[in-house]
Amino acid sequence: MTDNKNNKKDQNNLNNPFGKFNPKKNDGKPPKFNAYWIYGIIAVVFLIVQYYISNSKGPVDTSWPEVKQMLQNGDVKRIVVINEKIARIYLKENRIKNYESQFEGNFSKPSDMGPHFKLNTGPIEKFAENLTVAQENQQDKVFPVYEDETNWGRDIIWSIGPFVLIILLWWWIFRRMSRGGGGGGGAGGIFNVGKSQAKVFDKDQKVSTNFKDVAGLAEAKQEVEEIVEFLRSPSKYTKLGGKIPKGALLVGPPGTGKTLLAKAVAGEANVPFFSMSGSDFVEMFVGVGASRVRDLFKQAKEKAPCIVFIDEIDAIGRARGKNPNMGSNDERENTLNQLLTEMDGFDTNSGVIILAATNRADILDRALMRAGRFDRQIHVELPDLNERGEIFNVHLRPLKLSEEVKVDFLAKQTPGFSGADIANVCNESALIAARRNRDAIVKQDFLDAVDRIIGGLEKKNKIISQEEKNTIAYHEAGHATISWLLEYAHPLVKVTIVPRGKALGAAWYLPEERSITTKDQLLDEMASALGGRAAEEITFGKISSGAQNDLEKVTKQAYAMVSIFGMSEKVGNISFYDSTGQSDYSFTKPYSEKTAELIDQEVKILIDGQYKRAKQVLQDNKEGHSKLANLLLEREVIFSEDLEEIFGKRPWDKKHVISENGNGETQPKAELKEKEKTKAEENSEEEPTKE
């Protein structure tokens, strides 16, 4: 097990191979030499030795015709054959100067000692025969001397070198797997693979995050605060016979603050805090996951009372037996079995509380979710209007804002945003303001940041024909018209025909925040989604592929109304949705083929009915729809004030009117002109910088 100090020390050693010698901090001992530099030095030395071996000083290569000529000229003093492969030619001292030109390019000219040339003999019998033939007419014949030599360095390198490389490779793999060694603060290595990889935050290593940094999430924060209180004063609860909860599971969509809550617990609790991810238990070797679970709980018992936090627990907590024919899941299931045993087995872990987080609670094993293991399930949902305001207050602290920026207005412009999305909005608005050389962030920067996050980056240079532009304008005007004229449809905020991302046009709505949805509300939303396709058919007499996303949304919504929400009279009050997520062994639909045909018929009736309704609304307001489309072609961007001028106010929807102070007052008309002016300035500023 390595703590933050050891991690920091290791990082310093990586940055400085010789470390930083400080007698006071190191007790007068020099720091250890970094291992990675040793590997590098060994490799460089090996390459240098090989280079000099291959390019060392020595005799010049020659050929048999040249050797034959040397023999006939009487220049050869003696010939030594090494290992029956290489013939070394020694010249007479008074004949060396005749061959000095051949020695150029070598490291140095050969000495009088020799050897001066070398020759590959080939078959030794053939070489001996050639020597005899070449010296037939010579009186002073040269007879070869045969010797054996052993190159110990080369033989050792080629014999044991590959094995050394394999051993070093395996050692490096094990060292990388152990990532510095967990469990007990070891230095890492092959024997620490099964150690826990958890980070420990003890009393001397407090986390800076606390509950004050967690905005919103009032109910979830209260549950977590109570867990911290259990550890601070357990006697308050145990004196009445109660037991401290063993575990709490944080469940919610991504970006809602589950990990942030765990960080706040680490900052508030005065007990050791173990933090790790579910993927840290997964390894390529059999039994490593279960070993790490055992080591984690062993350390937790030694430091009890303490808190263990496992992020993304679905990596090891998936329901067992989903794929009974696949043996690859055995290791993950063994890890889960060990976790179940440690959490609630014969050996009770008194004083150890488990916190876990996941956004896929529906796939977790039921044995993991039962009381006695995770006694509490804390749901961390998307923030509502008031909670979004609190989150904005946290993320707006470091930003330099203009006076016109109001938190209430920003909270109303971001329905359905998570805490991470709101943080992204604040950061993106600061980048946009800096790009425009502003001294402070204005309201328009936040609106543009929201548009960019939802719809993507504007593509003003995308080539679109006039016919396509007309189709897009009437399509988006159809959505806007129907959403404005139907009571339960979401009120419009802005419509644009400037391409964003993959969409050629986009509309922004301000949905009402509600906990339940009625059938009338769903039908109005369905008619509004079909308004674009209906507008194309009425205006041009033909349809396009631009309504693909609308049709996909409507189809899913209609099937949900019939088969899940029980909103069809013929199908009845029946729901075929399994909210427990445990229907893993069902290989057939939970209804007959006749019921499936009935569901398809009811879905088609629903969609066809709302399509006819959308066409009827557009035909009844054809003049207003056409005027809105032409205005969209002229300006490319229109706001809710433009629809109000064309169709009038929505009498039933005062609560949806966008306001800054929450009193229901509409924005003044001058603000629309200001927006258009700001948008024009923005376009003129950004045009040269477009990619």
TrEMBL record:
The active site is at residue 476. GO terms for biological process: protein catabolic process; proteolysis. It comes from the Bacteria. Pfam families: AAA, AAA_lid_3, FtsH_ext, Peptidase_M41. Keywords: ATP-binding, Cell membrane, Hydrolase, Membrane, Metal-binding, Metalloprotease, Nucleotide-binding, Protease, Transmembrane, Transmembrane helix, Zinc. The gene is hflB. GO terms for cellular component: plasma membrane. The keyword Transferase does not apply. Homohexamer. Acts as a processive, ATP-dependent zinc metallopeptidase for both cytoplasmic and membrane proteins. Plays a role in the quality control of integral membrane proteins. Binds 1 zinc ion per subunit. Its main location: membrane. It is an enzyme of class 3 (hydrolase). Residues 1-11, 668-691 have a biased composition (Basic and acidic residues). It is a multi-pass membrane protein. It is found in: Cell membrane; Membrane. Zn(2+) binds at residues 475, 479, 550. This is ATP-dependent zinc metalloprotease FtsH. Residues 12-21 have a biased composition (Low complexity). In the C-terminal section; belongs to the peptidase M41 family. ATP binds at residues 252-259. Its EC number is 3.4.24.-. InterPro entries: AAA+_ATPase, AAA_lid_3, ATP-dep_Zn_Metalloprotease, ATPase_AAA_core, ATPase_AAA_CS, FtsH, P-loop_NTPase, Pept_M41_FtsH_extracell. GO terms for molecular function: ATP binding; ATP hydrolysis activity; ATP-dependent peptidase activity; metalloendopeptidase activity; zinc ion binding. Residues 1-26, 654-691 are annotated as: Disordered. The chain crosses the membrane at residues 33-53, 156-174.
